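Lecture 7 notes: from sequence to structure.

We start with a single chain of 178 residues. Read the sequence below before looking at the structure.
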Amino acid sequence: MSETYDTIVSKRDTRRFSDRPIPPDTLARLVQAARMAGSAKAAQPVRLVLVSDQAQKERLAACGNFTPHIPTCQVAVVFVLVPEAGVVGAPFAIFRGPFDAGRAAQNLMLAAWAEGIASCPASMHHAEQAAEVLGLPEGHVVANVIALGYPADDPDPVLGTRPRLPATDYVHRNRWGE
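Now the structure, written as tokens:
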């Protein structure tokens, strides 16, 4: 098997982080991995906000319903969708932007895991509040947040315990049910 494949199949969301800081050059590589994700029509609708300030991480965590891990991470990477050509609510941001944000987030998480850095995505259920906390310009929307940090010494108790669907239930050929 390849190292890339091993990284993909071994990566799990982690919600317990150590106090070990992420070196700046390592964080720069992770950001570069996110930045290099493909983008529909090369529109690049995704921008990042790196949140490392403790108080700011706590304010950001208050914008999601299931986000107690965000204040414990070293860096919260916020994926922001920018409106198309400055037009608020343009179809691009609504239909293609979230997919591009997901591609960039997955690149970031896999690059992090290859460096031994754990991650966990989080939704901002109170998106307007999150935009306010981050000082986003009008029309900019938080797509997701990825918490990053080295894993804690005590492993997450659910890590690796949730089974995946069998391939026979997950994959269909040519038509549903085939």
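The first helix runs from residue 3 to 10. Keep this in mind for problem set 3.
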